[in-house]
Amino acid sequence: MTKLTPDQRNEVYLLEAERTGIHKPILAALYQVQNKMSLVDGETGLGIAPANRITLNEVNTFLGQVQYAANTIRSITDSLINQGWKSSDLWNPEQGRYTDKFIQKIAWGYAPAVSDPTGARLEVSEAEALLQAYLIDIATDFKTEKAPQNLAYLDTALLAFVDRIPNHYVGLPHQRTALLEALRIWRKLDNREIAIASLKISIPINTSIETLEESYVDSPLLQFIQQVSRFYGGYPHQREALLRLVQLWRQLDARELAIADLEKSNTPESSPKLVDPALIAFVQRVPNFYQGKGDQRNALVEAFRIWRQLDSRSTALIALGVDPSVLASSSADPKTLTNTAAQIDRALLAFIRQVPFEYRETDPQREALIRLVQLWRVLPDKTQTIQSLVDDLKRMQQARRNTIDAAPTPLPLVLPRRPERWTPNNIQIYAPILDNGSFTWAEATHGGTRMPPDQATVDAMVRLAKLAQQARDRINRPFRVTSWYRPPAINARAGGVSNSRHIIGDAMDFYCDGLTGDQLYWALDPWWPGGLGRYNQYPYLSHIDARSDRARWLR
Questions:
Q1: How many other C-beta atoms are found inside a 10 Å radius of the C-beta of residue 51?
Q2: What is the pTM of this model?
Q3: Best exposed site among 50, 178, 214, 539 by fewest CB in 10 Å?
Q4: CA distances (Å), 387 to each of 55, 148, 179, 221, 392, in order?
């Protein structure tokens, strides 16, 4: 059987380290030095053997080896703590890793006590080799995420973060999950259900953690978090619990990013970006609920003014194409006022419909939308407005699709008119390359990541689109484009030859649902005027290009 890739193995290490509250690199290190045992899945193990109630079948796969290796590292840690080891014997806080002394203890192997139901037997390894493998994996993780090398600040930052949580907790699901994960790892529990049970609260039957009301878990979770600083001893699992809390609270991609983020800020105060989804959802609903009432119009004018950073309402009205003196005049006839109001409404609705496309998360833009919500909902201040948006966000996160609380379906961008000729400067990503054609610039440019650098490349892409459209019409099935234009560097990384037609923009790799590359080849061969190819290794993939002479190949 085929071994897992390093990245696949690393993902398994991460999951088991998160479950058990151990430092992930020790699992990678055990794999490197304990690679003697062949497993039924074709992998080698981490030096884990059956013990007590753990059977050979349970540890005879890579996944089983990692699971019980994580359990065993946790068991070794607990055993040493019970023997009187201090946190400083187990963990070096400045370097952010297990101590050499602890690594040596792991290298000596481990035989679990009969009373240990989850720990397995760990074979002896060479201590220096284990340490070096451990350090290499740490360096890889820190280099990837650009985490700081000196972590002397970390414990202080973690405790400062935790101490402030009660003041910033608003009951969002990801915040609740962060607290629950911290409690689970701190108490050395293996899953959320056990962690919830450990809170000893009464939960209605068939209620999941995703739908738990604050009254069920929030109070005991906050009581737990308020006691953390008092009982924090710097032990590895405690630190991992708090790092996991920060990672989930701030919705970061990796543990090392949480470490780096804490160096910059140790407050759990939510980023202003937190309410952006609720703001955009509100904006999308405005056109459906706008009735031309004075307070609604005033809210939109004020939002427009702040968005454009204009100094007054009059300036905003002028920017909307209206003479403010008309509205201020006492002699204006009703028809003129009605027409002016309708003109303002059209301009305001045009503005608000563009907001989801133009929003760049700048402070003035966000302030404009928050002010819009405040005035629209007649709320007394910004604080209560943000709280109302947080409430929206809670409902959005738990709402079923197509319900009123779910985020509205985004509206597509209205494309401008097609140019008479495509150039590198006027390409519309979602537009068909040919008028009423099937192939879009998004397909040709890999979603806009490979834009043509000059007119010759654009013309080549258009030329291929014309021929490919004929081929698609003959096959009468969509062509699923996997590769079209490729700049030279990307072409080289993809294994393309130096004279690949992809580089100049007139080659396409594609597949058709339900058809093989051979079937496409036989159907296109009689008439296709350029290059037509197939791949031995990829039997469903086809290649066409728009060279001036016929060429056929099988690679």
A1: 20
A2: 0.84
A3: 539
A4: 53, 35, 21, 21, 9
